[in-house]
Task: structure prediction
Amino acid sequence: MHDRLGSRYLWQSRWYNLRQDHLRAADGQEYTYTVVEHPGAVWVVPVTTGGEVVLIRNYRHPVGDWCYEVPAGGLPPGLDPSARLGQSEEVARRELLEEVGGTASDVRFVGQFYTSNGISDEVAYVYLATGVELGASQREPTELMEVHLVPADEALRMAREGEISDGPSALALLWCEAVLNLP
Result:
């Protein structure tokens, strides 16, 4: 544990903030640590009524590449951390509808993890959506993505072999493996 002696914001936006902390270690040494504050996000593994997994192929500007992912999106800013899990199912359903036009007969919480705990406080909430039926998406104009329906075993293979390079998406799929492998 370290004592926080002070903090200041280097940058703030509606999506995340960049905070710089002045800390003191147990040995008395002082140092600066920069943290990305993030309200958290959801990742949804959608499975259609026919048993296919809905993946998106998304263009990601920071890496200059097209990446296979599952639908995902951020929680609203300003939520008390104790309210985040309660809000995350609603956000999961919204992201499913916005990104792939999907509605699910059942959405169930699978688990949560830190996405990048060395630099950020972001928590990922993973959901499995079953009985998904697809319709028209409601994407933001800046989102460049394609919808791909793949058999569950193919989606799991893609996660295991690195074809799904988005870490949270790959982990979300692997966490759902027991359910996806059901006949």
About this structure: Residues 84-100 form the longest helix (17 residues).
